[in-house]
Amino acid sequence: MPDTLEPPGGGRYPADMESRVAVLEQIARATTASLERIERRLDVMDRRMDGLGAEYRSDFRWLLGVILGGFATMLGAFGATLGVMAHGFHWL
Predict the structure, then answer these.
(1) Which of 1, 6, 18, 91 is within CB 3.0–4.6 Å of 86 for a Cys-Cys bond?
(2) How far apart, in whole angstroms, are the C-alpha atoms of residue 78 and residue 73?
């Protein structure tokens, strides 16, 4: 039984398949080039984000310090108020 995929003319593919394969190969080359460009852009973006990461980290530390300092101040003020009230109402 003859192979149905074998071209009758002896070429590698049937005549219409040659042009289709050529188009697919061109698409594959264009896709590879596009993926390389995308990778380069992502690498640049990663480097930019790494540089921003240190800046955000220092901002976060500063903000955390302000929050903790404010909380400690509020606790101190509340404790002082309770101390004044205890002295005024002769609890101590």
Answers:
(1) 91
(2) 9
Cα 82 from Cα 15, distance rounded (Å): 96
Q: Residues with Cβ < 8 Å from 12, sequence gap 6 or more? A: 18
Residue 92: partners with Cβ closer than 8 Å, 6 or more residues away: 86
The answer to whether 7 and 13 are in contact (CB under 8 A) is yes
Exposed / middle / buried, residue 13 (Cβ in 10 Å: 0-12, 13-18, 19+): middle
Q: In whole angstroms, how large is the CA radius of gyration of the chain?
A: 37
The two tokens of residue 56 are 């955000």
pTM of the model: 0.43
Match 């101590």 to its residue by tokens: 92
11 pLDDT above the threshold of 80: no
